[in-house]
Give the backbone structure.
Amino acid sequence: MKFASQKVAYWFFASAMLLFVLQLVYGFIMGFAHIGMDGLHEWIPFNTARAVHTNLLVFWLLLGFMGAAYFIIPDEADCELFSVKLAYVQLIAFLAVGVTAIVGYHFNIWEGRKFLEIPRPLDYLVVVDVLLFLANIGLTVMRGKRYTTTSIVLYMGLLFAALLYLPGMISFDNQTMDSFYRWWVVHLWVEGVWELIMGGILCYLLIKLTGVDREVVEKWLYIIVGLTFLSGILGTGHHYYYIGTPRYWLIVGGIFSALEPLAFLGMAIYALAMAKKGGRKHPNKIALTWSLGCAIMACVGAGFLGIAHTIPQVNMFTHGTLVTAMHGHLAFWGAYAMIVLAIMAYAMPLLTGRKLWDSPLATWAFWTSNIGMSAMTGAFAVAGITQVNLERRMGLDFLAVQHEIEMHFIGLLLAASLFTVGIGCFIWNFLRHGLPTDEALGADIEAS
Amino acid sequence: MLSKSQAKVFFLGGTGLFSAAFLALTVDTHRKVPAQTRQADITPAVARGKRIWEHNNCMGCHTLFGEGAYYAPELTKAVERRGKPWLRMFLKDPAAMFPNDRKMVNYHFNDGQIDDVIAFLDWCGHVDLNGFPAKPPLAEKMKATSAAPVVTMKPIPPIFDTMACTGCHSIGGKGGAAGVALGAPPLDEVYKRKSKAEIATWISDPQKIKPDTKMPKLPLSPAQVTEIADFLSSLGN
Ligand code: HEM
Ligand code: HEM
Ligand SMILES: [Fe+2]
C-alpha cells in the first residue's frame, strides 16, 4: 500500500463478501424450490428469491469494482484519493439503497424486469451514488501525476457502465421495446463495458504480479478491449432474435456474437503469456492463480458456453431454458466474481500487512470453489439439455418435464454445497487478515 | 506487430464505427417494430395488463418472449395453448387448479385485472417473434403411431367451452390444444371407459381419485357435474 487512503477499499471488499454470502443463501432457496421443497413460498416466493439472488450478485460485484478502483487508482495516479470521506458516504449510501431494494422485494415492491427489478426512485439514487464515486475517482486521476492506460481503461469502463444504466430506465407500453432497451444494460454491461473493468483490473494485476513491462501489457489490453467492442456491440443482436424485432438481427447478432469469444480467448492467452514471460516472481502466488483462473474460466463460461447457444438455429430451442442459467453461472463466476476475488487476494496482504498468501486455506478456497462451480455448471447443463429435448423438441408439458429433471437439481445442490465450502474458506482467510492499518504503508513487494 | 498507439487507434476506431452501426440499426428497429408487434392493438387493457405483469414481477418465475426465469411455463402462447376461459379460472385461484404441484403466488386479482392480464398475454401471443416458439419438431413423429380417433357428431353443449374442458380435451373434433402435452384424452368415447357415476366423481375432484393427475379441479356446481356426466354417457346411445 502506497497511500493511506487506499484503506477505504477494505470496507468495499468486506461489504461485498457479506452480500455474496447472502446471495448464496437465496441461491439455495431456489435450488430447493426446484426439487419441490418450497416451504418458504409464503414468505419468499421464487420470484423474490431470484430477484434477491441476481441483484445481490450485481451489487457485490459493483462494490468489488469500486473497491478495486479505490485501491488501484491512487496507486496508478500516484496520489492520495481525492476524498476518503466521500468514499465512505458513497459506500454507506450504496449499501442503504441495496438493502432497501432487497427488503422491498419481500413485499412485492419492484419493477419486474429481469436484472433491473429495482423500483424507479431507487434507480435515481443509484445514479447519484455512482456519480459521486466517479467524481471521486475522476478527480483523483486528474490530481495525480500519471495518466496510465490501465487507469484510463478502468475509468472508462466504470463511466460507461454508469451511462448505460440510463437506457434501462426508459419505459414503453410495448413489451418488445422494453426488452430492447433492457439489453442495452444487461448485454452491453457484461459483454461490453464490464469487460473493460475486468481488463483494467487484470492488466494491473499482471503488471504487479508478473513484472512484465507495462508498455507490452497495456498494448495488449487495447487490442483485447478493441475486440470486445468490435464484436460485443453488434453482438447485442443475439438477444433480438425472438422478441419481436426485425429479422436482420438474426444475421447481425449471429455473426457478431459468434466473434465475441475471441475477446475472452485473447484475454486467456494474454494472461497466460504474460505470466510465462514474467516467470512468476511475485511471492503472492495465489493472487496470480486467481488472475489466471479468472481469464481461463471467463473464456470457458462466457466464450465457450456462450457460443454454444448463440447461433440463431440453436437459440430457437434453448432460448429461455436452463441452458441459459448454465451459461449465466459460469460466465458471471469466471469473468466477474473471480476478478473481484483476484484483486482482493492481491490487495488484502498489502492493506493489512499480514502476508497470508501461502496458507493452505487460500489454495483450498480457489480449488474447491472452482470445482464446485464447474460441477454446478454441469448440473445445469444436463437439466437444461434434457429440458430442451423433452419440452422444446418433443413438446411435453412444462411441469411434467420439470419433474423429470428434479434429480439434476439434487446434483446442483450438492455441487453448490462444495462451492459454498470454497467460498467459506476464502472468507475465513479474508477475515484472518484483520483490519487495514497504516503500518502496512510502503510494504509493497514488486515482482522481481 | 502493432505499436501501442496503433492498438489504441484500433480500439477507438472500432468502437466508434460499430457504435454508429448499432445506433443506425436501432433507429431502423424503432421504425419497424410497430408493424411487427401490432402496436395498434395495444389497448388500454393491454397496457394495464403489462403494468400488472411488471408490478408483480411475474418474470421472476415465468418467461415471456423467452426472457425471464425458468421455474414456471413460458407464457407467450398461453392464450392459444389454454384458451381464455381456462386462464380466467386459473388466475382466480392458481393453487386450486394444480393443488399438488409447483406453486404460483395467488394475487387475488379481481375480474377486471384478470381481463387485463389476459389481454396483455393475448397481445404478446400475436407479436411476430420470427418463429419463436418453434413447433416441437419431434412431436409429429411421436404422434404418427396412434390410430385415428372416433369423433361424435352430436352438438356439444356450451358448458364444455365455458368451463374450459375444450381447452384440454378435444370433443366433436374440436379443442384440446392445451391438453396434448398433458395427455388429456378426447372425450368422445369416455362412456366406454367410465360409467356416468364414475365420470361425475372424477370431474368433481380428479385429484381425490388420482392425486398426481394433470387434470385440475374445476369449480363445477352439482347441477353442472350432472349435466356433463349425462351428456358424456349419452354419447354411447
Ligand atoms: C462475462 C460475460 C458474460 C456474462 C456474465 C453472461 C451472462 C449471461 C446471462 C446472465 C444471460 C441471461 C440474461 C437474461 O436472460 O436476462 C445471458 C444470456 C445469453 N448469453 Fe451471455 N454472458 C456473457 C458472455 C456471453 C458471450 C461471449 C456470448 C456469446 C458468444 C453469450 C451468449 C449468450 C446468449 C446467446 C444468451 C441468451 C440466452 C437465451 O436466449 O435465453 N454470452 N448471458
Ligand atoms: C449456492 C450456490 C448457488 C445456487 C444453488 C444457485 C442457484 C440458482 C438458481 C436455482 C437460479 C434460478 C434459475 C431459474 O430461474 O430457475 C439461479 C440464477 C442465477 N444465478 Fe445462481 N446459484 C448459486 C450461486 C451463484 C453464483 C456464485 C453466481 C454468480 C457468480 C450466480 C449467478 C446467477 C445468475 C446470473 C442467475 C440468473 C441466470 C439467468 O437468468 O439465466 N449464482 N441460481
Ligand atoms: Fe449477450
Summary: The two ends of chain B are 89 Å apart (CA to CA). Residues 39-125 of chain B form a domain with the Cytochrome Bc1 Complex; Chain D, domain 2 fold (CATH 1.10.760.10). Strands of chain B lie at 63-64, 67-68. The mean pLDDT of chain B is 90.
